[in-house]
Amino acid sequence: MRLLAVILLLPILIALFFTRPTRTVESLPPVILWAWERPEDLSFLDPQKTGVAFLAKTITLRGDNVLVRPRLQPLRLSPGTKVIAVVRIETDKPALSTSQLQQTVREIINSPAASVVQIDFDAVVSERPFYRELLQTLRRGLRPSTSVSITALASWCAGDDWLTGLPIDEAVPMLFRLGVDQRQFQRRLETGQPFESRVCQNAAGVSTDEPVKTPAVDRLYIFSPQPWSKQSFTAAMETYRK
Amino acid sequence: MRRTRLYALVAGLLAVVLPGAPTVSACGPFMTEAVFVHTVHPGYPMERFAAGRLGVVQPSYARSYLFVAYRYLNSSSFTPDEQKALSELWKDRLNFGWTPGDEDWIKSWFAARRKVTDQDPAPISVYRSREKPNEYEAYLNCQKDSFDTAIATLNERIAKYGAQTTAVKTWLEAQDQVFSNCGGGNFIPSPLAADADALARADRAYQIAAANFYAANLDEARKGFEAIAADSSSPWRQNAVYLVARALARRGSLGPAETKQEALGQAEAQLQKILADKKLSSLHAASGRLLNLVRLRLYPAERLHELAQVLTNKTTNQNLKQDLWDYTVLLDSFLETDESDESKSPSIPKADELTDWIATFQDSSEQGRDHALARWQATRSNPWLIAALSLNDGKHPQASELVADALKVKSNSAAFASARFHAIRFLMDAGKNTEARTLLDQTLKTERAHFDESSLNLLLSQRMLLANTLSEFLADATRVPAALSWNDDGREIPADDAETSDTTKSQKGKPFFDVDAAHALNRQLPLSVLKEAVKSTALPPGPRRDLAQATWLRAALLGDTQTADDLAPILAALVPQLSELLKVYLSSTQPDEKKFAAIYAWLKTPGLEPIVDAGLGRETPLQEQDPYRDNWWCSSYFERATAEENREIVEFTATTTGPPPRFLSAAEVAKGQREATALNALGTAPNYISRQVIQWANSHPADPRVPEALHLAVKTTRYGCTDKDSARWSKAAFDVLHNKYPNSPWTKKTPYWFKD
């Protein structure tokens, strides 16, 4: 009887397994360069080894308005480069209304090359309910295969964790420009201790001008305060290969 | 005082290259910081700089400021209108929230439409993606003039036909199609029948050409506009002549790489044709602007030189903002190329003096230094004098000659502040401290008004380094910041009052230690001198309080009980909330009792640190936990690299690389170093405190303070600056508390120890 049940259920289980959406974030290369709003020619990158997270648009929530500014600076990549569309959300005395939330979600969904979207925002405590709802609405609106990544303050990943339970595929703790937390997190990184929040354990963000000991992660995002060049890319790889 | 760096400049350059572009936002927590000396742009208000009050010109300023400095250093000036244009340019570039105003254009268009229909069309986005493989940027597709023209035409057609007529509704329907191409798609209105009204047919032909233009069908658009231009009956024929050039120019931007130059060349020819035709004078202004853009792309080096000539021409420039914008964008593209990639590294065209000066002023290489000197010798002009001074130091063989020239600069010259600052710097470099001090004092006494806040702070930093006594040192150790800024993106923009805490607001205009003073106090002055500094009233109240706390705690931790005893009453007067804890310290007699009294006081006062803060310091009240773990202290303060990074562009600020203050004796210098080393050896606070508390608990188990101290020690390992050993100390303190004091209320309040 048990065997019969297994035989009957097997095709369903197999079907379920294969219909589970494969999130694109899992197939990203181990190194991702952030390409911010400035001319960037990254056509020298090997698409198999390095991906690019480019600032695709900036959404400003001002009052009850949603101002959208797409990327205006050129970005050149080799064919086949895996890309992540980064959407930066800024706020300026925002109403954080439902219509703003819906419009923002629409704009994120309509980002170019959006098989992975990364949301970059600075959520003060009072804005967190808005962002929670935004991420939930976004997840419902995206295709299942589309991954959602967010950048995160390191403190969100350690102690001040409001990310657990959010429908995101990864949170990228930003291990630079840490302000007074710098000492604390440097110590932590030196000891190799992972972040408590599980969504923060697969990726980390670093900057070329603040070398840190990086945690063991699947994906390392690297920011450069200057436009990328072959030289700066090589130097960054040498730094972080250590 | 002199260091080089790149990143701040890059931030400034980002603003130059990318008006309105957001930069990566620092990942906070966001704290306001004191900017003692601006390095990427002059201090606010910018109007002051635009009017020629330059202060000390920093090579690290973005290049639009250096252009203005160059003009004034050359004894040139700007009219009030030009100054306004400069201020507007800087405002646009520093305002990353800048938008072209598209929401207003669209609102106006929608408002005009409502005269015909209440039903708004789909939202319009004015940006369109380039829609090419492996390219991800957008461009501003529909500009203000598109909407202005549409509104004017709609109003005219309403006046002619009436708002609710078929003619107007048909026109509007087609116009909606035209604008639906702005954000993407390919929506081209159909041509009207041959028997339709002539004006309607002319309008429709124009709409079809415009729709093709916005849909990036640029060849079709050009052909459409050419046909209209050739139609003598069309009211759009003049506009169309210009729009042919626009279609060609856009093809030069968006079209295939191999045809870009050709398209731009055709656009240039078309625009020159328009400019040569007096009958098309209404198109000349727009055509001139577009021609500038086309030439900028066709001949960047020549255009850079042309713009430099225009910008240095002393006649009034009505187009200053745009010319300077274009010039700096071009110059940035030449100076910011990747040197590792020769194919992308065009040589910097220095064919004109302005470009040569800016490029050299920012070139700290030996070649740059030599070139600045050579140009100074050849010209004896102020711009090259300031460049030669900025790039060299007082040990250079020609230093005396440079100083002599610097001292000849009159106080009414725009070069005065820079020349005087560098003359003093050179004298200090050469060890001529008395001469430097005399010149500095005279400058501060009679010429202070020529120095803005940043420049004044540079002089005060020099004066602190030249102090002959402790009192003189203290008098210049604190300075009023030029700005309080979030500065999370390197833009040094003063924080908006509406966005800052009450604490920050209360700090505006107050003096704080800059990094050079904090470095000397924390690492160079021995306790014996620090004690005198605390006793002195030379420091303002805030910094004196900070120094008193730091010195008392340092003395207590290092076992200098005499100093700690001496300072306790002063500290109690300055910080009354510490009085009771200090009384206990004073009443303790044995060294180990005193040590524990100090540790206990420290545990209860997380804001105490054995060092002073540079800048604004900790905002959280002394006896409260800082939410960002700025509690007790991190010994890593002493581990921070003080050597400046290998930067490329010089900037002048206070530094932490200066020698010990001159008034210290050799013995005091040595003692200061020993004490700093001993303090550093204590290790990070949570570990040190926990160790001390456990030792005291073992030796004095009946002390009623012990359970609370153990509880607080465990807390330090959660809220303080920890390291790899902290977890061990956390557990050790926890175990002692739970094993020896199981019934204490403090034990119940300590359910966990902390791995981090």
Provide structural commentary:
- The complex is a heterodimer of chains A (about 240) and B (about 750).
- With about 240 residues, chain A is α/β, with parallel strands linked by helices.
- Chain A contains six helices and eleven strands.
- Chain A has helices spanning about 1-20, 100-110, 130-140, 155, 180-190, 230-240; strands at about 30-35, 40, 50-60, 65-70, 75, 85-90, 115-120, 145-155, 170-175, 205, 220-225.
- The longest helix of chain A is centred in the N-terminal third of the chain and has 18 residues, at about 1-20.
- Mean pLDDT of chain A is about 85; it is low at about 15-20.
- Chain B is mostly helical.
- Chain B has a two-stranded antiparallel sheet with strand order 1-8.
- In chain B, about 50% of the residues are buried.
- Residues about 5-30 and about 640-645 of chain B have low confidence and may be disordered.
- The interface between A and B is large, with 67 and 56 residues.
